[in-house]
Design brief:
The chain has about 425 residues and is of the alpha/beta class. The chain is built from 17 helices and 13 strands. Helix 10 links the parallel strand 5 and strand 6. The termini are far apart. It catalyses: tRNA(Tyr) + L-tyrosine + ATP = L-tyrosyl-tRNA(Tyr) + AMP + diphosphate + H(+).
């Protein structure tokens, strides 16, 4: 007789092959939390024995995203699971998007129309397909079952969870203590998200750390519907280029996945040597042993910049092409040597002779004259490869290449 987990009903006496153990290591790599690793190991062992892939769910409420590398952390994990042979379910929350999930917020998120959701979902999936294999991705919409629910169905679903458990969610409890309003429909959101796991018969669900409560609700609801409960995998937030704040477009510390190859490459190269290893863990598709070898090589004297180049090339290749990555490396090295790249924007200005601060501001190389003068003081301004040290310089008429910092160039014709 098979021994069972008291909490889940999953058989725990299947032997774990080396392939299963390696798969668990791959899945756990770079994660914040896995609940429960022994259950997942048994699910994988059963999958190996029966040849039936696991069903891995990622639920997304599309809100017109412009994806950056931080967004791809969970998508990378989904791709790794695809490569391990399992079924990835890209669940579009077209029904729940019109409710509004307050996770991690202290106010209700605005509702979206059906048309907005469909448009956003297509944008999201097109960008996500730069990471996922679209041919091996099952796309579902939770309106398939949610729209069909009657009032009786909704009340029966609500009866399977208590208000006390719902109020354990931090954002709800905080708002309640502060006297902030909580609408009844918001309390239904985690139930609806959990019900998705029931309808999809999910074996594992992925999400950010702010989604842990909702994922646990799905696990409990599956038990209530006599299903094997899903495992839960939460992913950490990726710090941005500053190495401090989480990657965010509003903070300007992001690497957009649709940015030009040269820009993407240079931004990755700007991260610190220490932060590089977290980027490898969360973004690279290289094996753990490969990354371990790179770490050892750096410890033994290899220049960490060379290892960072490999990371930048991998990322640019994924979102552009190998040729684009090679070209981006050449461009980066040229700039590092103080050379002038081929793709310098050209513009014409009038008003010669013009002060250097005003010139840099009008050319768009600096946001303000004061910033431009600071760059001069710091030795970050060159005209035709010659450093400018005089903040009082008046630039005469002519055509010349102006450089600010390592990456900003303009070929200016001043009249």
């Amino acid at each position: 007789m098979n021994k069972k987990h008291e909490s889940s009903g999953i058989s725990d006496d299947l032997p774990l092959s080396s392939a299963v153990k390696e798969a668990v290591d791959v899945i756990k790599r770079g994660t914040e939390e896995l609940l429960v690793d022994t259950e997942l190991a048994q699910k994988l062992a059963r999958s190996e024995k029966t040849g039936k892939p696991l069903r891995i769910k990622l639920g997304l409420d599309p809100t017109a995203p412009d994806l950056h590398l931080g967004h791809t952390v969970v998508l990378n994990k989904m791709r790794q699971l695809q490569d391990l042979g399992h079924t990835v379910i890209f669940l579009i929350g077209d029904f729940t998007s019109m409710i509004g999930d307050p996770s991690g917020r202290n106010v209700t998120r605005p509702e979206l129309t059906r048309e907005q959701v469909k448009e956003n979902a297509m944008t999201y999936f097109n960008q996500a397909s730069l990471v996922l294999d679209p041919g091996r991705t099952e796309i579902r919409y939770n309106s398939e079952w949610s729209d069909k629910m009657t009032a009786r169905d909704m009340i029966q679903l609500a009866s399977r969870y208590t208000l006390a458990r719902i109020m354990e969610r931090e954002d709800f409890s905080t708002r309640f203590k502060n006297g902030s309003p909580i609408a009844i429909h918001e309390l239904l959101y985690p139930l609806m998200q959990g019900y998705d796991s029931v309808m999809l018969e999910s074996d594992m669900e992925l999400g950010g750390t702010d989604q842990k409560f909702n994922l646990l609700v799905g696990r409990e609801l599956q038990r209530g519907y006599n299903q094997e409960p899903q495992c839960i995998l939460t992913m950490p937030l990726l710090e941005g280029l500053d190495g401090i704040e989480k990657m965010s477009k509003s903070k300007g510390n992001y690497v957009g996945i649709t940015e030009p190859a040269n820009t993407m490459f240079a931004k990755v190269m700007s991260i610190s040597d220490e932060m590089m290893w977290k980027y490898y863990d969360l973004l690279s598709f290289r094996s753990l042993s490969d990354i371990g070898n790179l770490r050892d090589a750096v410890k033994n004297g290899r220049n960490p910049r060379d290892v960072k180049v490999e990371l930048a090339q991998e990322i640019v290749t994924r979102f552009h092409s190998k040729a684009a990555a090679e070209s981006a490396l050449e461009d980066f090295m040229l700039r590092a040597r103080g050379g002038i790249p081929d793709d310098v924007p050209e513009l014409s200005l009038s008003g010669a002779p013009m002060g250097i601060g005003q010139l840099l501001r009008q050319a768009g190389l600096c946001a303000s004259t004061s910033e431009a003068l600071r760059m001069v003081d710091q030795g970050g301004v060159r005209i035709d490869s010659e450093a400018v040290s005089d903040r009082g310089l008046k630039v005469e008429a002519g055509t010349f290449v102006v450089q600010v910092g390592k990456r900003k160039f303009a070929r200016i014709t001043l009249n």
